[in-house]
Specification:
Helix 2 packs across helix 4 and helix 7 packs across helix 8. This protein has a 3-stranded antiparallel β-sheet. 61% of the residues lie in helices and 9% in strands. The chain is built from 9 helices and 3 strands. The chain has 156 residues and is mostly helical. The relative contact order is 0.17. The longest helix is centred in the middle third of the chain and has 15 residues.
Length: 156
């Protein structure tokens, strides 16, 4: 799964915007929340209360929460308005954006991994990042600790 630098991520958002509002909303929600695409299929308006989006991470059964920015709220409204969609539809949207951007390996998990690395590059402690993305500290240290200084320099 590729990790997108800031320039590439802006390009992805731009391409998604040109394709359709649902394409942009799908990508934006996946990146901002670092959620899995299977969780996205289960989101409903009831998950958004008083400016906080709440969902249960299936793998850990952990309750995840994120404060909703105006842009994230707009993206969620686009997805809520169109109603529940399948995991395959969201994957297809990401693949279409990837094809248009010349990144054939772009997948929903790309946004989870990219968000995680971006949070680490901002200087957040690994345990805080683990909480934000809903995984263990061991996963953060084991998976993202394997990035080389050269890779981090390109992303930072």
């Amino acid at each position: 799964t590729p990790i997108l630098d800031g320039t590439r991520l802006k390009q992805i958002f731009s391409i998604a915007t040109k394709l359709s509002a649902p394409h942009w909303a799908t990508i934006f929600v996946l990146y901002e929340t670092a959620m899995h695409v299977s969780t996205l299929t289960e989101l409903r308006r009831g998950n958004l209360v008083n400016g906080v989006l709440t969902w249960r991470r299936p793998k850990t059964n952990r309750i995840m929460k994120v404060r909703v920015t105006p842009t994230l709220e707009l993206a969620l409204e686009v997805l809520f308005k169109e109603g529940p969609k399948s995991k395959r539809l969201y994957q297809k949207r990401v693949e279409q954006v990837g094809a248009a951007a010349g990144i054939p390996q772009l997948a929903p998990m790309t946004f989870r991994h990219t968000r995680t690395v971006h949070l680490l590059l901002k200087g957040l402690p690994p345990w805080v990042v683990a909480q934000k993305v809903g995984c263990s500290l061991r996963t953060i240290e084991g998976h993202y600790g394997l990035l080389t200084d050269e890779q981090l320099d390109r992303l930072g």
